[in-house]
Specification:
Layout lengths: L11 H7 L40 H13 L4 E5 L2 H9 L7 E5 L4 H13 L3 E5 L4 H6 L5 E7 L11 H10 L3 E5 L4 H4 L9 E5 L13 E5 L2 H14 L5 H11 L2 H20 L4 E5 L9 H7 L6 E6 L2 H11 L4 E2 L9 E3 L20 E5 L5 H12 L1
Parallel strand pairs: 2-3, 2-4, 4-5, 5-6, 10-11
Antiparallel strand pairs: 1-7, 6-7, 8-9, 9-12, 11-12
Helix pairs in contact: 1-2, 2-9, 3-4, 10-13, 12-13
The structure holds pyridoxal-5'-phosphate (PLP).
Pyridoxal-5'-phosphate binds next to helix 3 and helix 4.
């Protein structure tokens, strides 16, 4: 869906609240309705409102796609039933013999999709440390069509220089895809740094309330948009109208939530950094983070995800996680409530034994927007 040019001049939150969300034309409803319908009456054979069948298009979905595309400063945006369905649609551009380069601490589900599902279809992959794009340049795998990067990465919070990686990918005629789930468009807009497509699990910060699963792709490439629209309709991994409504409702408050996620995370990083039960804090906002300069340049804040390594090893990490009371033990991230997890056993178990394996003393926090003093008190008692 195209972002109306009239919206380009508005700020981020104004666009989150208004793009694609003009009052409904029949009743004037100020909030985009949940169009809970599978089909649309046609005026005459071949003459319709622009909507025929709800797999192909639904007005609630259109509103969400327009709003999210605008937030990524993108001409086009396509919504899917999950982040992985969105990734699948992008990867279906590939043919047998093609190669995918991905980061060496990619989201476990992305790794599983590329290695187990696309691997079976004759598409190869390799995992690389993308924090230094010149290393990939010197070690470029033949037939690479897509470079797939997250920044910050999950769960090690490494940073990739998007502009530098785009330059390398383009010189080798490959497309750069950035998974922007952790940063969100509020903190980082990869298309403006040269990425060809941006992927989101809208399940996380964009939805923001742990109540809906979804995925989104933004691009300025009309051919890619046409491919994605085709796959969206032909494969049918589409979100229902309620899911679109909830995601749009969440996205309206993205900016205010991210400001609080950022400030809460920074306060927690301060506490963890000085604590004897913690051997290392991983957060792009820390001056000793290896790519802090790049993060400062391409992001407007460092986000709500914080990882740390327990000084006492795996058992100590497990004990900290189990003693937390306010931080809920759960997978997922990016919502109003704070979560804690053990990536090695939980979110990244499918990477065990591969190049994407994560340290077993690693603890990941998704810092929510509760009162930060309560969060700090909970962590302090858990660290002991
Ligand atoms: C959750 C997540 C995904 C997958 O999205 P789903 O909505 O769970 O399918 C992809 N990338 C990242 C970084 C994620 O956190």
């Amino acid at each position: 869906m195209t972002d109306p040019p009239s919206h380009r001049g508005f700020g981020f939150s104004t666009r989150a609240i208004h793009v694609g969300q003009d009052p409904e034309t029949v009743t004037g409803a100020v909030t985009v309705p949940v169009f809970q319908t599978s089909t649309f009456a046609q005026e005459a054979v071949g003459k319709h409102s622009g909507y025929e069948y709800a797999r192909t298009g639904n007005p609630t979905r259109t509103a969400l796609e327009s709003a999210l595309a605008s937030l990524e400063d993108a001409a086009f945006g396509v919504q899917f039933a999950s982040g992985l369905a969105a990734e699948d649609a992008l990867l279906r551009q590939l043919s047998p013999g093609d190669h995918v380069v991905l980061g060496n601490d990619a989201y476990g589900g992305t790794y599983r999709l590329i290695s187990k599902v696309f691997g079976q279809a004759g598409i190869s992959h390799s995992a690389h440390d993308l924090s230094d794009p010149s290393r990939l340049d010197g070690d470029w795998p033949a037939n690479t069509k897509i470079v797939w990067a997250e920044t910050p990465t999950n769960p090690l919070l490494s940073i990739v220089d998007i502009a530098a990686l785009a330059e390398v990918a383009h010189r080798h005629d490959a497309m750069l895809v950035i998974d922007n789930t952790f940063a969100t468009p509020y903190l980082q807009r990869p298309l403006s740094h040269g990425a060809d497509a941006v992927v989101h699990s809208t399940t996380k910060y964009l939805g923001g309330h742990s109540d809906v699963v979804g995925g989104f792709i933004a691009t300025n490439d009309a051919d890619l948009d046409a491919h994605l629209r085709f796959i969206q309709n032909a494969v049918g991994a589409v979100p229902g109208p309620w899911d679109c409504y909830l995601t749009l409702r969440g996205a309206k408050t993205l900016a205010v939530r991210m400001d609080r996620h950022n400030s809460n995370a920074e306060a927690i990083v301060d506490v963890l950094s000085g604590h004897s039960a913690v051997s290392h804090v991983l957060y792009p906002g820390l001056p000793d983070h290896p790519n802090h300069d790049v993060a400062s340049r391409q992001m407007t804040g460092f986000g709500g995800m914080v990882s740390f390594r327990a000084a006492g090893g795996r058992d100590a990490a497990m004990a900290i996680i189990e003693r937390c009371e306010l931080f809920t033990l759960a997978e997922s991230l990016g919502a109003v409530e704070s979560l804690i997890e053990h990536p090695g056993v939980m979110t990244h178990a499918s990477a065990a034994g591969s190049a994407l394996e994560v340290p077993d003393d690693l603890v990941r926090l998704s810092v929510g927007i509760e009162d930060v003093d309560d969060l700090i008190a909970d962590l302090e008692q858990a660290l002991g």
